[in-house]
Amino acid sequence: MTRTTQIARTTGAALAVLLLVAACSSDGGATTAPATDAPSTNASAPAATSAGGSGCDPKDIKLVQSGRGLENEYYVSVDAGSKAFADSVGLLDNYQWIASDGDSQKQLSQITSILAQSGACTVLNVDPNESAILPAILDAVVANNAWLTVQWNRPEGTSPQETGPNWVAFMSEDGFVQGHDTAKALFEAMGGTGGIVALQGILDNTVAQSRFAGLQKALEEYPDIKLLGDQTAKWDRTEGQNVMQTFLTKFGDEITGVWAGNDAMGLGAVAANEAAGKKIPVSGIDGLEESLKAIAAGDGKSGFIATTQANAANQGGFGLAIAYAAATGEIDPTTEPDEHRAFFLKTNIVTKANVADIPAPDDTSKMDFSDIWSVVGAAIP
After folding, report:
1. Superfamily of domain covering 12-37+46-174+312-347+364-379
2. How far apart are CA 108 and CA 122, in angstroms?
3. Which pLDDT band holds residue 37 (cuts at 50, 70, 90)?
4. Per the CATH hierarchy, to which homologous superfamily does domain 175-308 belong?
């Protein structure tokens, strides 16, 4: 197996250096104030009260969604959900999407720049590019007394409960269940026997790790399925196609199935297989619209055959909604139960059998933000 180990630098000294560098850097011409241990003193930024107080005036709130990039359909759906929430509270003009483009330093620089401008009434919903960057983001948020929901990635041993009210919630999907259940769907489509290759996400990404662990558990349950090789394709479609081409050259007809850690990489694998004239079943995760269409059009045995139902719009919309409720004083995060501070969304596997009943990933027409906890599946241990 080819697995690159990335070292998470999360010591206090390293984080302090990272935060200082980010605060002094420029992002697209934006001015970034140096980070300090004290709340922002930007005179133009509105102030917020402590948790449980009267909070920010809604008109002063800046809504910010941070992810990799809108060339990825998953993030298009995240953005759609975020905009749906912003529109529901009349703050669409106060909403901003920022793209990290897979660059952790860029993401931190963008966030510190916005915090320097908007201060304590900044509401952020952030998908950290990797776990190691989150402590520096938290330092900046806490220093400015802003409000944060985190998606997907966090270093082991960190939690909103231990950090305090400014890290309002951590929202994720159960990557282990996703990886395990999509693998089972793939193995069933293969008839329970054969050889697979696996396309992993960013290896220092906790979700990538948990999804791969789910695959490994499924392999234990299907002893006649052999893992021929695995490699990161960095969540990217083009990388997925390139890695799959390499696997086809190396393993040839031994490959009778492909497990991908997300749909983008899976779609890249499908493209490589089709170019090579191969009819190989491929599973993914995320429920992209293109994947759903491919599943519906297929025979359930080759091409794209399984994914998970998308929660991207919910992650965008409800991630902002929860942090907004803290910023306005509607909730005091410190008094919320554990299942509201760190939780999994529900996992639903999509195959040929049920794809006709699954809505488009960016369909926000039925989103209802009157109960911000309605998307909670289970508490994260």
Report:
1. Response regulator (3.40.50.2300)
2. 15
3. very low
4. Response regulator (3.40.50.2300)
